Amino acid sequence: MVSLRYHNEGFIDTFDRQIRELKEVQECYQMGGKVDFVLKEICTTTENYI
After folding, report:
1. Is the pLDDT of residue 14 over 70?
2. What CA–CA distances, in Å, run from 11 to 1, 6, 8, 20?
Protein backbone atom coordinates (compact mmCIF):
# COMPACT_ATOMS: atom_id res chain seq x y z
CA MET A 1 0.00 0.00 0.00
CA VAL A 2 1.28 3.47 -0.88
CA SER A 3 0.13 6.82 0.44
CA LEU A 4 1.50 9.87 -1.34
CA ARG A 5 2.49 13.06 0.44
CA TYR A 6 1.32 15.26 -2.44
CA HIS A 7 -1.65 14.73 -4.74
CA ASN A 8 -1.08 17.14 -7.58
CA GLU A 9 -1.08 15.85 -11.15
CA GLY A 10 2.67 16.25 -11.70
CA PHE A 11 3.57 14.31 -8.56
CA ILE A 12 1.20 11.45 -9.44
CA ASP A 13 2.57 11.34 -13.01
CA THR A 14 6.13 11.10 -11.66
CA PHE A 15 5.11 8.30 -9.29
CA ASP A 16 3.37 6.47 -12.16
CA ARG A 17 6.46 6.73 -14.39
CA GLN A 18 8.76 5.45 -11.66
CA ILE A 19 6.48 2.52 -10.75
CA ARG A 20 6.29 1.43 -14.41
CA GLU A 21 10.10 1.13 -14.47
CA LEU A 22 10.18 -1.37 -11.58
CA LYS A 23 10.17 -4.92 -12.91
CA GLU A 24 8.98 -6.22 -9.52
CA VAL A 25 5.67 -4.37 -9.76
CA GLN A 26 3.13 -6.52 -11.60
CA GLU A 27 -0.02 -4.49 -10.93
CA CYS A 28 -0.85 -1.03 -9.57
CA TYR A 29 -4.30 0.14 -8.52
CA GLN A 30 -5.24 3.71 -7.65
CA MET A 31 -7.52 3.82 -4.62
CA GLY A 32 -9.63 6.34 -2.78
CA GLY A 33 -9.32 7.04 0.95
CA LYS A 34 -6.22 6.85 3.17
CA VAL A 35 -4.32 4.59 0.76
CA ASP A 36 -3.59 6.09 -2.67
CA PHE A 37 -2.21 3.01 -4.46
CA VAL A 38 -2.02 -0.73 -3.94
CA LEU A 39 0.88 -2.49 -5.65
CA LYS A 40 1.19 -6.17 -6.45
CA GLU A 41 4.87 -7.09 -6.50
CA ILE A 42 7.02 -10.17 -7.02
CA CYS A 43 9.66 -10.54 -4.31
CA THR A 44 12.43 -13.05 -4.90
CA THR A 45 14.01 -12.74 -1.44
CA THR A 46 12.88 -12.00 2.09
CA GLU A 47 14.95 -8.79 2.05
CA ASN A 48 12.94 -7.53 -0.94
CA TYR A 49 9.70 -8.29 0.89
CA ILE A 50 10.55 -6.12 3.88
Report:
1. yes
2. 17, 7, 6, 14
